[in-house]
Design a protein that fits this description.
- The protein is an alpha+beta fold.
- Helices cover about 35% and strands about 20% of the residues.
- The protein has three domains: about 1-15 and about 300-465, Neutral Protease, domain 2, CATH 1.10.390; about 30-155 and about 255-290, no CATH class; about 160-250, no CATH class.
- The chain contains 15 helices and 20 strands.
- It has a six-stranded mixed sheet with strand order 1-19-20-18-17-16, covered by helices on one side. The chain has a three-stranded mixed sheet with strand order 3-2-4.
- Strand 10 and strand 11 (about 215) form a beta hairpin.
- The chain is elongated.
- It starts with a strand and ends with a helix.
Length: about 475
């Protein structure tokens, strides 16, 4: 059951599948397409990890891809779409999706990686070279607790992806100038002036004629990759030596190294580790699931109600209000108090939506004896309405239709006068159209009010246990 914001009306959740609007090519003139989420995941598996040997590693990638898409959804909203199909977001190859790739995407359908109730930032790279990188070393100011530098023994088996690249110094100078980066005249040497916690280059010192030039290592790598090719300087984990105008780079790994190392993840899968183990290794402190995980819940217990909250000082009054209302409802209708009533107040609207899958116009949801609330929702009227649902559902026989259960809770919370209008249970269940849902809730309440007028309140309440008369 759920409560609509402002009107305090309820329905049963039926979440719609996510649709992403994607531009396949970077050109502004290229077309955008709408893709169901699981189809998108399979297409990114084809673009980012089609060579994996391990199915478990592919499942881990599917969860990471799906979470990345949800985390960065609407990244390109100003351009009229959600995500692009290049490595700026995630590389998409819809024409290369195989039956295996689609089945592996479907095997984890809907699963996301969560951190403190929100979809995690699931960065990944091709090869970390035996040591993952800290997020702050790659993206200034981005402090993500689970994206820290740490050794990766699986990436080093059987080898850590060593590489070499020799190039004329003037060819490097031309590549940097093409990206409008400052270069000293007659470039001769490059030194690593500062390294990250994982040992990767952070700041470079370029020497030639005149004053040396300091340059961010990431800017250097991207400029070289765009101009010369991405198989030149493959990562920021390297040493460089100069010999007669030529520069020899010797390094390990490929990509930025933050988050999940694809090479290491595949090796973990080959060695028998499950996809959840793989995700836990590369994103420590996160949790995998269909709904929001990783919240620091605090339990506050009353006589009949338990309150789960992440902000006890803010939500303490909700418990007292619920305890009072439970006793009032029980006394008013002669109903026994249901056991194990639980109320969860989420820290913010985004986390409520992530956890429940509800649209933004829903203020609360009740399932059996658990009430889930947006932070702005725990007012007296909302709590009473949801607690009425708990009482109704604890006594209702299975064959009672949705409209009667919804309408009875609505009637007891606030009887709605007026003539009954036509509606269907599916109007109550759907989550796509707020106006249609509100109309159906109000109609169900009026229909129950008409039954009370015809049979009397005691008889209508008895329908909970006997079912509706023919």
């Amino acid at each position: 059951m759920r409560v609509l914001a402002l009107l305090f009306l309820c329905t049963i959740l039926r979440a719609a599948p996510a649709i992403l609007r994607v531009r396949l090519k970077p050109a502004v003139s290229s077309a955008t397409i709408d893709m169901p989420l699981e189809q998108y995941v399979a297409a990114v598996l084809a673009g980012e990890s089609s060579t994996f040997k391990s199915d478990e590693a592919m499942k881990a990638m599917a969860v990471a891809i799906r979470t990345f898409a949800i985390h960065f959804r609407a990244r390109h909203a100003k351009e009229g779409y959600d995500l692009c199909g290049t490595t700026h977001c995630q590389r998409l190859e819809p024409d290369l999706v195989t039956e295996r790739l689609q089945s592996l995407a479907d095997a984890t359908a809907g699963e996301l990686l969560w951190y403190e109730g929100k979809p995690a930032y699931t960065a990944y790279s091709r090869n970390c070279g035996g040591m993952t990188e800290d997020s702050t070393a790659v993206w200034d100011g981005l402090r993500v607790p689970f994206l820290r530098a740490h050794p990766d023994p699986w990436c080093q088996r059987p080898a850590a992806g060593r590489w070499q690249w020799s190039v004329d110094a003037q060819k490097i100078a031309a590549a940097l100038q093409r990206s409008k980066l400052q270069v000293p005249a007659d470039l001769r040497a490059i030194q690593v002036a500062q390294r990250t916690p994982s040992g990767r280059a952070r700041v470079l010192l370029l020497s030639g004629s005149g004053e040396p030039v300091r340059l961010a290592a990431s800017s250097f790598r991207f400029a070289i990759g765009r101009a010369i090719g991405w198989n030149s300087v493959r990562s920021d984990r390297w040493e460089v030596t100069e010999n007669g105008g030529h520069l020899l780079f010797e390094g390990a790994g490929e990509g930025h190294g933050v988050g999940m190392c694809q090479r290491g993840a595949d090796q973990m899968g080959v060695e028998g580790h499950g996809y959840r183990e793989i995700l836990a290794f590369y994103f420590p402190g996160t949790a995998t699931g269909l709904n929001a995980r990783g919240l620091g819940w605090r339990r506050m217990s009353g006589e009949n109600v338990a309150l789960m909250t992440t902000l006890p000082d803010r939500d303490r009054a909700v418990l007292a209000t619920a305890e009072r209302q439970v006793k009032e409802i029980s006394a008013q209708y002669g109903w026994p108090i249901p056991a194990k009533i639980e109320i969860r107040v989420y820290p913010d609207v985004e986390t409520f939506r992530n956890a429940t899958g509800e649209p933004g116009w829903v203020a609360a949801r009740t399932t059996a004896r658990r009430i889930e609330l947006q932070p702005a929702a725990p007012r007296d009227a909302t709590l009473r309405h949801e607690l009425l649902h708990v009482f109704v559902e604890s006594q209702a026989v299975a064959q009672l239709p949705v409209w009667f259960r919804e309408g009875l809770a609505g009637y007891l919370a606030h009887a709605t006068p007026g003539a009954a209008t036509e509606f269907a249970d599916r109007d109550i269940r759907q989550t796509e159209n707020e106006s249609r849902a509100r109309t159906a809730y109000a109609a169900a309440t009026r229909k129950v009010a008409a039954l009370v007028q015809r049979y009397g309140a005691p008889t209508v309440l008895a329908f909970l246990k006997t079912g509706l008369p023919k």
